[in-house]
């Protein structure tokens, strides 16, 4: 995968098997403009095609994770601006959801609007103490995008989802963790270390199984029990044909830790 210049709106890099995607418009609190949206989609296309990527870490530069969409883009031409931002971002979210590689979000400062929407598509979210959250769309007279209306009620329940979406109020990391939006709240100076450590731990796991698991769990809300059992059967049989499954079974009988190579 190409590592972009730090002058770009999105910086894509690698640390071993972990792909890092850093939103990089710090002066605008990493608000998504057209360049960032297109770069994010291009980076996820690269990741989806790269079997060496076994975990993804999303993070923001400067003072925030992401403050939403770029309002200047929307003000100049609302309909075209919305299409130019939403089109590639929705394609990117679809790719993100289909990865075998688990996704970790490293969140600090603020996650608002599209930033909160995108954060919810990560499998694990670690936030710095003091981080603030706001779905915010209603405050500019908009509904939502990036799958927020799908992810939010699944993560926090209907009542909390409607409150967050329709009141557009700010809330802190303590509340976000309590209602199920976060896995951990950590000191700000420890956040990059803990987020990368988690991503690396996931990257050393059985990638095929982790990919099937993340899609089984997320898809379970849309299937009845019978359909979910069928999906589990298909997924398990797929995993059983993998090299990692053989490695795990052999390690169990040999009473040692397994080594997974991701295939």
Care to describe what's here?
Strand 2, helix 1 (34-48) and strand 3 form a beta-alpha-beta unit. The chain has a six-stranded mixed sheet with strand order 1-2-3-4-6-9, with helices on both faces. A three-stranded mixed sheet has the order 5-7-8. The protein folds into two domains: 10-203, 2-enoyl-CoA Hydratase, Chain A, domain 1 (Alpha-Beta Complex), CATH 3.90.226; 207-253. It is an alpha/beta fold. Mean pLDDT is 96; it is low at 1-5. The protein has helices spanning 34-48, 71-76, 78-98, 114-119, 148-156, 158-167, 173-178, 191-203, 207-219, 225-240, 243-253; strands at residues 10-15, 18-23, 55-60, 103-107, 110-112, 124-128, 132-134, 171-172, 184-186.
* Radius of gyration computed on alpha carbons: 19 Å
* Number of β-strand runs: 9
Known CATH architecture of the largest domain = Alpha-Beta Complex
Q: Main β-sheet, in a few words?
A: 6 strands, mixed
Based on Cα principal axes, name the global outline.
globular
**CA(first)-CA(last) distance:** 19 Å
Oligomer: single chain
Number of helices: 11
Compute the average pLDDT: 96
CATH topology of the largest domain: 2-enoyl-CoA Hydratase, Chain A, domain 1
